[in-house]
Amino acid sequence: MKKAAITALQIILFTAFFASWHMIHPQKGFACSCAGPNSVQEELQKKAAVFSGKAVSVKTSGGLLRSSADPVEVKIEVDKVWKGELGKTQLVYTARDGASCGFGFEKGKQYLVYAYSDNDRLVTNMCDRTKLISNAAEDLSLLKEGKLPSLENRQADPDFTGWYILIGAILLGVASYIVFTGSKRRRR
């Protein structure tokens, strides 16, 4: 009985300490804050790609734990290009939520996209000039005439990082098995 009371007291003290620690030292919160849009000409110089097209798919990463910063993959059917070597379809990435500056793409809608390159991926956010094509009259008049997409497809292949991790884990498991069974045989 005494042991149970001591254990319960330890749990209560630990919980109180943990809760008070987080009240005294709260974690910092982050939100999106944009300085204001650059001019069309500045964005055209800075960005890796500027193009228009229709969002044909919008894929959010699923999972038990979600964050506003989770990546969203948007597949765009490109119709005009002002900067960059793009194919007829192009993958663009953004954060899932506006709290992390993610741009809210909707399937089936036309967009003017200003994207920068990050690890060989095109990325955009709500601080860029990316917008619905119906709200882009000023940009389109300054961009003049675009060209048609020139490459067959860019970034059409999925990211294979998961496969590399899986293959590495299998090889590590096989190597561990060989070492374990080899050391077992030597002991005999």
Describe, in plain words, how this protein is organized in 3D.
The protein has 188 residues and is an alpha+beta fold. The chain has a domain at 40-155: Beta Barrel (OB fold (Dihydrolipoamide Acetyltransferase, E2P)). The protein is 34% helix and 24% strand. It has four helices and six strands, in the order H-H-E-E-E-E-E-E-H-H. It has a five-stranded mixed β-barrel. Strand 4 and strand 5 form a beta hairpin. Mean pLDDT is 79; it is low at 154-158.
Secondary-structure map with pairings?
Elements: H1 2-24, H2 40-46, E1 49-60, E2 71-83, E3 89-95, E4 110-118, E5 121-123, E6 131-132, H3 137-143, H4 161-187
Parallel strand pairs: 3-5
Antiparallel strand pairs: 1-2, 1-4, 2-3, 4-5, 4-6
Organism: Paenibacillus contaminans
InterPro entries: TIMP, TIMP-like_OB-fold
Subcellular location: Secreted
